[in-house]
Amino acid sequence: MRGAKPVLRALAAALLLLQSGLGLAQPDAEDPYLWLEEVQGERALRWVQGQNEASLAALQSGPQSAAWVQSFAEVLASPKRLTHAQQMGGYLYNFWRDAEHPRGLWRRTSLASYRSDTPHWETVLDVDQLSREEGAPWVWGGATCLVPQTQRCLLTLSRGGGDAHVLREFDLGTRRFVAAAAGGFSLPEAKGNAAWVDRDTLSVATDFGPSSMTESGYPRQVKLWKRGQPLVQARLVFEAAPQDVSVWTWAEQIGRERVHVIERRTSFFAGEQHVLQNDGRLLTLSKPADASMNAFADQWLIELRSDWTLGGKTHAAGSLLAISRTDWAAGKRQFHTLFRPTPRSSLQSHVATRSAVLGVRMDEARQQLVQWRYQKGLWQETLLPAGDLGSLSVSALAGQDSDRYQLTRSDFLTPARLELGEVGRAERQLLQAMPEFFDASRHEVQQLQARSKDGTAVPYFIVKPRGDLPKDGAPTLLYGYGGFEISMKPSYSGILGRGWLSQGGVYVLANLRGGGEFGPRWHQSAQREHRQRSFDDFIAVAEDLIQRGITRPARLGIMGGSLGGLLTSVAMVQRPELFGAVVSQVPLTDMRRYHRMLAGASWIEEYGNPDIPEQWDYISRYSPYQNARAGQPYPKVLYTSSTLDDRVHPGHARKMVARLQELGQPALYWENREGGHAGASTPAQQAQLWALSYGFLREQLMGPKPAMTSP
Asked: Is 315 a catalytic residue?
């Protein structure tokens, strides 16, 4: 079952709050660059074109730049990348992109073939061919298949990589879309989703027309849609309030039982979960609003984001609890605690197989793999070997239909490894290992910590050349995020290795408050009026690097995307003397209007509401667009965005660049015309994006046009 965390990541819509009668502050009417918020406006696109031309001229001159693009493209389209798969019926399915298929192939193979050294893949859908046939830049978004029959699927496709997408029914037997004339399900482009109830019925959350969407631009209705029935005749089963964020629907097959869930999100982190029963009634799961529940065998698993006191006992935020569904239905609340956090530990994720729950927990930003098995009425915990100072990702190969699971392991210097394990067996089979894209033997990894402004210990990882660093400081790239309970973890990147580490650069990954490294409390400590703490943590890591002599301001660069783009912009505006270069990707910058631009309003729980004077008071102190000042020498900065980003509005980056240029500051801008929030939709576009970013950083921090060294 999907659970709450993936739903949270999907919440991206614009909430236009009503102002009349609420005593809210009026929006800034003196913004001279509002016209840049017109995404496809003729004037705005002319400005984008001019900025793109200037940036490409500055950053892509000479054959050296072309060599970097080619080098990065080799990494992104390498035929030796890992092939994660999902088992449905007798096949394992995988989505694959390479140089010949930049938009990708959905393909399948048998389990025996998958476990061999040379799996044989059968193409199910060629997205490049589909794009050519239909004249649309389709980007794959995944498949929701009806199990256990696994004959029919709902495929998600978006134009250019945006969050809005179409859903189409696909027949795995014929490997063709089911035509509408033959009763095939098809939903027009919208934000939302659908789930199988049975072969001829879907539960659908989409744009059903006027008044069917929340004020945030997401569906607020779930309907049951029968095959052959016009969508307008689908039966309403749930409706959220217009001011809610969204509703979502999904189903999970557990043995012979199909558990069907409808989730109402009242805010980004809080909501309700309801089980759709066979008779059409809804069973409300009485839980804390910000907790999530998942079904496992005959159990409910409950993950808490805040303390929950029942019967005089308090279950701590970040805990994972288990209770039989029979006991739950009977009103009993005697839980078994599978995981209880400490101040410096958290549960990062958990998945269920047929007979076990597998979790990734983090202690002092280091990860471990743990297994919980429920046997004869008792839970047993086992710690499974998975290495140290690395990043772990675990998934159930066939959901709860099997005990097989996939584990991906990597760290900064070790290429990712994909292993196939099975509950009850100690050994895992190594299926694949990524190739080495750079010589990592010359580097080492350390974990250090800085002290933030209020004394909080902030850990960070550092990847550096072995031996002594230059006495005048090494070129150093600091990366951070710090929000939405998302953890920054060690992982192998051929792009980072080729573009930065192999050129002699030092890389630093900061574990800031606002993230999920130490659980919900670590995140909540930097929400709303406390957002400055995350920025202070980032600045403290930068200062610590300088104080240790690892680098100096002229050789220290920072990079981040989305909220991380806000982070780097704030750091640049608040402490420009600390940095020599800034790369801000798909950022937020105008926090006065962020809630009025696309996805922004669904993030009010994270940042606060700038229409409320008391909240704008603390937001206004850090909003980069409003705080950029004339006469302040800022470091040179590169902003990047995407025209088709329908999550973070490209107007944020556009307006910030225009503002900086108005102030006479050195700012470059590059906007990809498609790609959605990821910024690029094909490996070639991604390669160009990273070549621009790392080329800019190398030139600013290492000197003009450094010679390309062998990866």
From this structure: no
